[in-house]
Amino acid sequence: MLCTSLPCDAASPSCLYAAASVSGGRACAVNIHRGPAICAASRSFLSPPNPRPPLPPRAPMASPNPQCPDCGVGGHLLEVGGAALTCPRYSPGNPDTPGQLPQVQVTVPAGSMGGKRLSKLLSHVRRLPHKYHLLGGSDLKAEPDEQCELKSVEQEEDVIPLPAKEASRLSEEDLIKYLHVDPNSGLSECAVLQRRIKHGWNEFHMDSGEPIWRKYLGQFTNPLILLLLGSALVSVITKEYEDAVSITVAILIVVTVAFVQEYRSEKSLEELNKLVPPECNCVRDGKLQHLLARELVPGDLVCLTVGDRVPADVRLIETTDLLVDESSFTGETEPCSKSHGAVDEASGITTLSNIVFMGTLVRYGKGKGLVIGVGEKSQFGEVFKMMQAEETPKTPLQKSMDRLGKQLSLFSFGIIGIIMLIGWLMGKPLLGMFTIGVSLAVAAIPEGLPIVVTVTLALGVMRMAKKRVIVKKLPIVETLGCCNVICSDKTGTLTANEMTATKMVTSDGFHAEVTGVGYDGKGSVSLLPSNEELREFSNVSIGKLVEAGCVANNAVIQKNELMGQPTEGALLVLAMKMGLGDARESYVRKREIPFSSEQRWMAVKCVDKTEKLEDIYFMKGAFEEVIQYCTTYNSSGMPQPLTPQQKSTYLQEEKSMGIQGLRVLALASGSELGKLMFLGLVGIIDPPRSGVSEAVQILLESGVSVKMITGDALETAQAIGRSIGLFNGHLKAISGDELDQLSETALPDIVTKVSVFYRTSPKHKLKIIKALQQTGAIVGMTGDGVNDAVALKSADIGVAMGKTGTDVSKEAADMILVDDDFSTIILGVEPVDKDAIKQPPRNAKEPILSKALLLKIFVSAAIIISGTLFVFWKEIPDGKVTPRTTTMTFTCFVFFDMFNALSCRSLTKTIFEIGFFKNRMFWLSVFGSILGQMAVIYIPPLQKVFLTQNLHALDLLFLTGLSSSVFLVSELIKFCEQQCCRKKPVKALEEEI
């Protein structure tokens, strides 16, 4: 049977006497099939003519408002978006042959998608070869399936996708009622088709990208490039073809390099689409079906099991020990325990325990739930829409170059105007003066500037690549030097994304501290406060505690890679650091009681391989659950009765560790499950990466504000913030919900003062970035998850992690840290000046040619022009220009440029401070320029081209001494500035960059 659905605004049910059923109301279904058809108004069935003879012919009806003799409904039978569908069999003046398929006429308004679908559908109806007649009441009893289908169509109402928070608060009964679905049999096919018309497919729709040629031409919209194009055109008009060719070549080089660097497919949205699984398990019409995930609609009943990727936003109605990895959504790797009960109050979208989100992964257990959001109406859809709406901002360098291009354009027009005015006052021809003015304006435009900028940025990209940093766009290198605020995700960026045990407290009062990060087993366990290093069972209480955590464990570590739960991996590594190896090898596991969200503990029943003693249980889990199974506590290997005072002490220890941001596990062992011996507590956390704290301090000292944005709880956020130097008593942490309550005017001021943001969603991260940019800050964002992608794209510079980062985040970012090393960010500075990190970031609002820089340019230009004119005057005593005059003047100008470049290596430091021969690339360029100049002077073929002649050694010595004056004066000015403006030294970066 072919079945489709279409919207209907008809006020009353009507019929289509053509092997079709049309149900009135707000949603109608038209069923075309080769079996019985239903008249929705009269509740009669239409079938092929085999069982009964055809109906007798009916006379045409002359009434202006004809009625169907079977259903009694008159007028229009169906209206779709303003189009009228009539039954011509009973319309005046349209007699029809009995049993023949009626000719249906539809008027479709322009642009009506529903009308187009209906028109196509009815054209198919006309081609059906069958003849139909009306069935009697006896036949109705034989068609229960059709009656049920009709009933479901009649009762179908609009279903609006539920927001996750609202769905989480509904009880199971209210949810089922709202979604109009049977919790056992799911939706019917008819209901599915109607809802798909309303809500569309469960997928993301991407706009087609610009063609390559348009992206290439877009590079020419830069104001400076347009100005250079105008200069090339003027050069052609004035027959200065050499200048036109050189300017055009320069433009093509710059544009092509920029295009090659920046052109890439917009893959971030494509990668996001990949998180929607291709298939899923869904119950429809009472049958479990394996469907394409894109076919899901709100209200579908979805079944989830281990390894499934959630196909849509689902409100759970049934769970069994369900653990879901939401790292792709929240950035937090620890699997979340899920339940199906209603949630009274939730602090954030990430804390909804009865909702599983599209793209997340089922790690353990199974569940069943109802779809509440599909496609762009899901939480991932919100991220998708935000990424589509966000445009990558221009970099500060691009903005400065645009301003410079406009300023040069005004300057050029000013020159032309002044020259023409002077010529007009002197009585000169205006056309000739215009030509002179244009020539001077073209000469004033620095056609080499775009090439110099491009080459400089390309060198920066190469240097960053040596530091294992991939820079996607050339201007980003300069943006890094302007960045004055860095917002960073916590998990996987500031932290190693590797859960690590850091603290232990035994039942008999021993405290131990654990060092080392990662799953390689490097680190040690030290007894406090003596700092005695512990190995194996040198301390019996700590040894037994570590052994229990290793045995009650299902994780595996191979080649420093964890396979299993991060928390269990931390306990295995703890045993490795104690020298216990894999303690599970000493026992034979006989039984396992798995973890569940209700009991919040797991236990294993084992027997010792060597001693063959009685069975022993090892249990780990939440303290308040584990302690209920304990009757004794361990005291140096001996059980002692567990008193209420002891329980109170352990509870205080557990709370103290929780305040420090640690995830606390309690461990116990014993021969009977209800009479276990309490062993102690282990605190686990995802610690900061090595070098992060030092990098943060260097950034803070250099004037860069660092902010941490995480989806974690307040305690964890504060613990990490304190450990890396972000959080102190004077700074306040703000949650995502608190951000939502701030007004638009108060938000920028608040986010500027706060350094730690917790319980945040992608929407909150975007709001923080936008608020900081409103204050004029140049904002960098670092992250690794899908939840960071929108912020990475909207920030002035987005930095993604190379190893742990998702494909979505890496495609949305401008820079990728291949080694996931946060400290690499501070290396984007000029390598010849290791003290550059002391300086505050460049003010992005300042023009490229600042007043101080212009003053130095004018001083250098005055010296170069004066020296060059002096040589030219000295070499034409008779007023005639000779080859020697040309050679001396040309060589003098080239030497001046070499010495000026040597001085320009730093605007503030002298050549002796930055190192005379440290920049090898510079000296190779200088050596190549000198060789080229010597070739022009001494090689005969080149002498003819450039009109030069041989110079003596004394001539070269004289020119070298004269041209060095620009270098000496510039260095003297720097020295004087340092003496007058000496500042207190700031701690410098220790490692040479």
From TrEMBL:
Record's subunit section: Interacts (via N-terminus) with ORAI1 (via N- and C-termini); this interaction regulates Ca(2+) influx at the plasma membrane.
Protein name in UniProt: Calcium-transporting ATPase
Keywords: ATP-binding, Calcium, Calcium transport, Cell membrane, Golgi apparatus, Ion transport, Magnesium, Membrane, Metal-binding, Nucleotide-binding, Phosphoprotein, Translocase, Transmembrane, Transmembrane helix, Transport
A GO cellular component entry from the record: organelle membrane
Enzyme class: translocase
EC number: 7.2.2.10
Record-annotated Cation-transporting P-type ATPase N-terminal domain positions: 166-240
PANTHER family: CALCIUM-TRANSPORTING ATPASE
